[in-house]
């Protein structure tokens, strides 16, 4: 049986708004801006400042499958999109104007499909534009947030090679931990090399070389990389991710392999 507690998810979204008001309290600018920008401006990274403050939370974030609560939070290093309000993750058709689903979102979608035993028809895996029309209710069942809330650029249109500083990591992790306390994820996926479970919770214990458990936040944490590094992602990181998903199934933290959730998830968004 699959249930969605949409009321609880709305409560979480409202709590996130209060959290962001606490951090972005200086006319919409983060209270740590002056501290974090000091070195960046000294390095002449002053050709553009963007802020992406809000986690995206799907309307079915709080779901329960066979009496097991599943709340999935993905943490990445995403491009700034001037996202200054809390909203839901993008659906696949949201990429229609671009003509294809970008690599990061495509691979994230496939990860969620694997975790939920969601049948997305594997026949056109390399044809990105066909992903636009895949069944995508799974994208309503997770939250996506950004490790770095600000970027400082060499030129305004820069999206690759954006540099971040240790002081940013320190301050942004503070906000991330508060987001986690509100979202209470049962599974956290870290889509960034160098970001570790111990950064999220110091008591995280190792279950595999990339899967950890924290009793403090009662969450399983998967360390992986950003899928934009596709060769390393596909050849090294994705097999480890699949192994950790199987481990979570054995722990009954994800639905068993014989439970196909496609129809049930689609009904949530009918």
Report on the structure:
By secondary structure, this protein is α/β, with parallel strands linked by helices. Helix content is 34%, strand content 16%. It is built from 7 helices and 12 strands. β6, α3 and β7 form a beta-alpha-beta unit. The radius of gyration is 18 Å and the shape is globular.
Mean of all residue-level pLDDT scores = 89
The biggest sheet, with number of strands, parallel, antiparallel or mixed sense and barrel status, is: 7 strands, mixed
> Proportion of β residues?
15-25%
Shape: globular
Helical region count?
7
Label the structural class: alpha/beta
- Strands, total number: 12
Low-confidence stretches: none
Oligomer: single chain
- SSE sequence, one letter per element: EHHEEEEEHEEHEHEEEHH
Q: How far is the N terminus from the C terminus?
A: 17 Å
Task: Provide the gyration radius in Å.
Answer: 18 Å
Helical percentage: 25-40%
Question: Which strand order does the major sheet show?
Answer: 3-7-6-9-12-11-10
Summarize this, please?
The protein contains seven helices and twelve strands.
Write the layout of secondary structure elements.
Elements lengths: L1 E3 L1 H18 L9 H10 L6 E3 L4 E2 L5 E3 L2 E3 L1 E5 L26 H14 L25 E5 L3 E3 L13 H18 L3 E5 L5 H4 L4 E2 L4 E4 L4 E6 L5 H21 L11 H7 L2
Parallel strand pairs: 6-7, 6-9, 9-12
Antiparallel strand pairs: 1-4, 2-8, 3-7, 4-5, 10-11, 11-12
Helix pairs in contact: 1-4, 3-6
